Amino acid sequence: MNEFARKKRALEHSRRINAGDLDAIIDLYAPDAVLEDPVGSPPVTGHDALRAHYEPLLAARVREEAAEPVAGQDAAHALIQVTSVMDYLPAGPLYAERGWLKAPDAPETARVRRTAMLVIRMDASGLVRHLKSYWGTSDLTVLG
Fold it and tell me: Are the C-beta atoms of 55 and 64 separated by less than 8 Å?
C-alpha cells in the first residue's frame, strides 16, 4: 500500500469505530492480527479476541477524533493520534483501581477521555496485521 492508502485506512479505522459497526471494524483486520495496548491490557490475537475487545468499547459509546495520520517510509506502517471519549462504565473502574485516574462521584454519567498514539502495521492488501496503542496516565481524564 502506498502512503496515502495507509493514511486513509488509519482514518477509516476511526470512522468505523464511530459508526459503531463491529463487523466492519473486524473486517479491517487480518484473521491472525494482533492488537496490543501495552499499558492497559495483554495482547489480543484473531477476530474472536478483537470482537471481544471492541464490543465493550462500542457499548460504552466510544467516539474517536483522529488527527492527520503519518505514514512510515517502510511501506507498512501508519501512525495516528486518536482522542477517544467513552462512558466511564465499564472500563473506568479498572483504571481507577490501578490508580490511573480518580473515580468520579457519578460513574453512571461520567465519561473518560483518552489520547493515544496508534502504530498500525498493514499488509499489502490493507489489512491490519498489528496495532499498538500507546498512552500514559496523563492522557486519561474523567469528564463529569
Answer: no
What are the tens digits of pLDDT across the range 24-48?
A: 999 999 999 999 987 667 899 999 9
**Residue-wise pLDDT tens digits, 89-143:** 988 898 899 999 999 999 999 999 999 999 999 999 999 999 999 999 999 999 9
Do 79 and 72 meet the contact criterion of CB atoms below 8 Å apart? yes
Q: Which of 63, 4, 55 is nearest to 26 (CA)?
A: 55
Whole-number Å distance between alpha carbons of 33 and 81: 20
Best CA proximity match to 118, nearest among 1, 28, 48, 2: 28
Going by the DSSP 8-state scheme, the letter that residue 105 receives in this structure is S
